[in-house]
Amino acid sequence: MISTTDETLLRRAIDIATRAIELGDAPYGSLLAGPDGTILVEAHNTVRRDDDITAHPELKLARWAARELDADTAARTTMYTSCQPCGMCTGGIDRSGLGRVVYALSTAQLVDLNPGSARPGVPQDGPALFEVARLPIEEYHRPPAPRRD
């Protein structure tokens, strides 16, 4: 359910996207609003400027949240973004612990507006070599041996 506050903050995300164009960047903008609705941080897409395919605003803000917010605050924080987060950003958002994402345009709507924005998937093969691949994972997650003093 989208509230009046959600609409106001989505409009701000769209304003950030508009400002990105003025700066020579791609038209995507996002912000994080804390539990009380206060804007914590804003970002826009800087993929071209930074020559970095990961410089999406959603991923930048997910990283910020994971670094700067405690788990309880992150879980009560909402990301507002001008477009639905891509798969890369969704992975970062999921791991950041943010509680909610509200977006203006869906991926399907974005592709309808700009058919060149669709990205083909990369084929993936696997799983393979389970018995070998599991060893470093098990090693990493093994509890430390008790100390003998």
Structural class: alpha+beta
**Oligomerization category of the chains in this entry:** single chain
Query: Low-confidence parts lasting 5 or more residues at pLDDT below 50?
Result: none
Topology-level CATH name: Cytidine Deaminase, domain 2
Q: Averaged pLDDT, please?
A: 95
Please give the largest β-sheet. Answer: 4 strands, mixed
Helix content: 40-55%
CATH architecture: 3-Layer(aba) Sandwich
Q: For the largest sheet, list the strands in their spatial order.
A: 2-1-3-4
Order of helices and strands: HEEHHHEHEHH
Amount of beta strand: 15-25%
CATH class wording: Alpha Beta
Number of domains: 1
Instruction: Please name the fourth-level CATH homologous superfamily.
Output: Cytidine Deaminase, domain 2
Q: What is the count of helical runs?
A: 7
Question: What's the Cα radius of gyration?
Answer: 19 Å
Given the C-alpha coordinates, what overall shape results?
Answer: globular
The N- to C-terminal Cα distance equals 58 Å
How many β-strands, per DSSP? 4
